Amino acid sequence: MERVNTVPNILWITQGWPSDVAPSAGAFHCETVSILKQEFTSLTIANPIPWVPYPLEKFSTHWKNLSAIPKYQKDGNTEIYRPRYLTTPKENHLFLAHLFQHYSLSKIINKVSPSLIHAHFAYSSGATALWIKRKRGIPYVLTLHGDDVTVYPYRNKRAYKLFKKTVLGASKVLAVSHALAEEAKSLVSVDIDVLPNGIDTTKFFTKKTKEEARNSLGLPLDADITIYVGNLTEEKGILDLKQSLMSLKWDKRVSIFIGDGPELSNLQSDPRNVCLGAIPRLNIPVWLKAADYFLLPSYHEGLGQAAVEAGAVNLPVIGGNVGGLAGLLKDQRGILVTPGNTAEITQALELLKGTPQYARKIANNLASYIIKNHDAHHCAKYLEKLYIHLTAKN
């Protein structure tokens, strides 16, 4: 990257950043930020976390984990602040969180003095940035990621109005996929650029062969191994996936699930399922390398970052025919299935197992596409130019 004379202070507001407690939260940001820090040494991360009053953490694992997330950490030369804010039950239904987040961020804004905010997700980070802009005059960039477009604006009139104001208040709006950008444009008439979450394939990669990966993980060499990475929820197609896998007549089947969520115990009832919980993102490639097929039969996806990462490791992908995932896997870059259709998932798996040449073809097609379109260095370069352009105008 070319150096510039004036380097603006950038504050990212996001709903997740990895920690020991939640190693996968917001992990898709890390590689782009690492590259951006080479140019913007003053780039700071703000990740507001709900305040957990004593003794609530004693009665719920969820609240216990939130309470344990550090208020401050450093990843390399990146500072991450996690101010606590007052929250309410079902905060993403009442749409009040951004008001409290604004106050929780006051000390950080005073310390960092940002010239530009980059908010990730329209709600609640984007709405928080809008409030800060109104109070302090700091412009913001908004990146749309998924549920903030496909779910929240449809919940009630207040949600839609807040979404519209948040999008219109941004100096620039980005979306992680073309499908997401089109849906956002149907809700609010505004120009939106598509900028996927970047992946650095030189880091998110393992040189192990499939046999070496299986040996290192204690997995059988002669098994057919499927893998899923993501939240273990019904809307991710987990129940459909479980039913489909159980219907397979394969002699030796192992199914790996990386992630956490309400369907974890449901999956653990099948002894052929290996449930790892949430693990650090850079530990995932070796598990992907050990697998034969990647599955993400979601009901909606802004992009499907887990499928991008599986493709980077040259795995054939089966995904839900929805949102950005449909665009990612079209043109023989994967197999698309109708959400909720377990028979299609089963048929796709049987097809890949029975035609290994086809499986290799779609895996190679996806890997080539990802290298060309999802490179973290390209994403960082785009953001570098955008930040400098926008701050030069103010």
TrEMBL record:
According to its UniProt record, this protein's enzyme class is transferase
Please tell me whether the keyword S-adenosyl-L-methionine is annotated for this protein: no
For this protein, the record's Pfam families field holds:
Glyco_transf_4 (PF13439), Glycos_transf_1 (PF00534)
Q: What positions does the domain Glycosyl transferase family occupy?
A: 210-365
| MF annotations from Gene Ontology | glycosyltransferase activity
Q: Which residues are listed as membrane-spanning?
A: none
Presence of keyword Transferase: yes
Q: Residue ranges of the Glycosyltransferase subfamily 4-like N-terminal domain?
A: 80-202
E.C. number(s) listed in UniProt = 2.4.-.-
Q: State the UniProt keywords alphabetically.
A: Glycosyltransferase, Transferase
Protein name, UniProt field: Glycosyltransferase
The root-end lineage is: Bacteria, Pseudomonadati, Pseudomonadota, Alphaproteobacteria, Rhodospirillales
